[in-house]
Amino acid sequence: MAQERAACALEPEQVQQLLLSCQEAKKSAYCPYSHFPVGAALLTLDGRIFSGCNIENACYPLGICAERTAIQKAVSEGYKDFKAIAIASDLQDDFISPCGACRQVMREFGTNWDVYMTKLDGTYVVKTVQELLPASFGPQDLQKIR
Ligand code: THU
């Protein structure tokens, strides 16, 4: 189970690297149905970056978001402690905001880490997982019954 810890402020260079990585990941998006490419870049506590893109399917519900692709790649490689995730889409006038399913999957690995939501021009807003999913259900809740 991921431990709760303080959200860490990133060095400006780390933010830039994360932003570039999510933009790069977006290029691999497989989105023939929505035509809505998304890229994500996940920074681990020890400084690694795992990227991901959305991957759709002709059986629509089987599609997966960029954020969850990145998280699944990281966890399957043994990394579960995250500092931040950055998300890029082609939206020009809005910051891309993670869906509810992705917020819940982020929350599995702690509530106090950062989500950088970008616009096409690279500007961003940052919120913690806690801010994006308040009053959440998480792993600790399963410990409360015997
Ligand atoms: N999508 C993501 O990958 N991440 C988000 O934050 C929002 C939505 C994907 C899912 C689907 O492939 C497409 O964008 C349209 O919803």
From TrEMBL:
UniProt EC number: 3.5.4.5
GO biological process, one term: pyrimidine-containing compound metabolic process
UniProt-annotated catalytic positions: E67 (proton donor)
Keywords: Hydrolase, Metal-binding, Zinc
Catalytic activity annotation: cytidine + H2O + H(+) = uridine + NH4(+); 2'-deoxycytidine + H2O + H(+) = 2'-deoxyuridine + NH4(+)
Residue ranges annotated for the CMP/dCMP-type deaminase domain, each copy included: 13-140
Assigned GO CC terms: cytosol
List of residues binding substrate: N54, I55, E56, N57, A58, C59, Y60
Residues noted as binding Zn(2+) in the record, renumbered to the chain: C65, C99, C102
Name of this protein: Cytidine deaminase
